[in-house]
């Protein structure tokens, strides 16, 4: 599975690679000369390369949904659920 990690999660690509994912960072791709400065460019790149986008950018998440591009949206609700799960484990 190919994964495209948005700029705010640069470094997460390296961690995902440790778990066997073919992961790329938008930030690193830009440094290599790819033109990925806009949300449109990011989702188009993901679509053309068969990638799942990982982001907290709600606009990119909406664009992915509208264009049938797989996306993991780490919005406030997702983060809140993770916090609740961690807190529940600490109670045990």
Q: Using only CA atoms, what is the Rg?
A: 14 Å
- At CATH's second level, what is the architecture? 3-Layer(aba) Sandwich
**Unreliable stretches covering 5 or more consecutive residues:** none
Could you tell me the mean pLDDT?
93
Instruction: Output the CATH class name.
Output: Alpha Beta
The count of DSSP E runs of length 2 or more, i.e. the number of strands, is 4
Which band does the percent of strand residues land in? Answer: 15-25%
Distance between the termini: 35 Å
Total separate domains: 1
Side by side, the strands of the main sheet go: 2-1-3-4
CATH topology: Rossmann fold
Number of helices: 5
**Structural class designation:** alpha/beta
What does this structure look like?
The chain is of the alpha/beta class and 92 residues long. The chain has a single domain (2-91), classed as Rossmann fold. Helices cover 52% and strands 17% of the residues. The chain has 5 helices and 4 strands; from the N terminus they run βαβααβαβα. Strands 2-1-3-4 form a 4-stranded parallel β-sheet, sandwiched between helices. Strand 3, helix 4 (58-66) and strand 4 (71-73) form a beta-alpha-beta unit.
Could you provide a short overview of the structure?
The protein contains 5 helices and 4 strands. With 92 residues, it is α/β, with parallel strands linked by helices.
């Amino acid at each position: 599975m190919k994964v495209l990690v948005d700029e705010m999660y640069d470094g997460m690509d390296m961690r995902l690679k440790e778990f066997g994912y073919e992961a790329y960072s938008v930030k690193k791709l830009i440094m290599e000369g790819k033109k990925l400065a806009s949300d449109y460019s990011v989702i188009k790149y993901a679509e053309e390369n068969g990638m799942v986008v990982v982001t907290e950018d709600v606009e990119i998440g909406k664009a992915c949904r509208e264009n049938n591009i797989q996306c993991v949206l780490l919005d406030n609700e997702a983060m809140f659920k993770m916090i609740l799960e961690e807190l529940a484990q600490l109670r045990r």
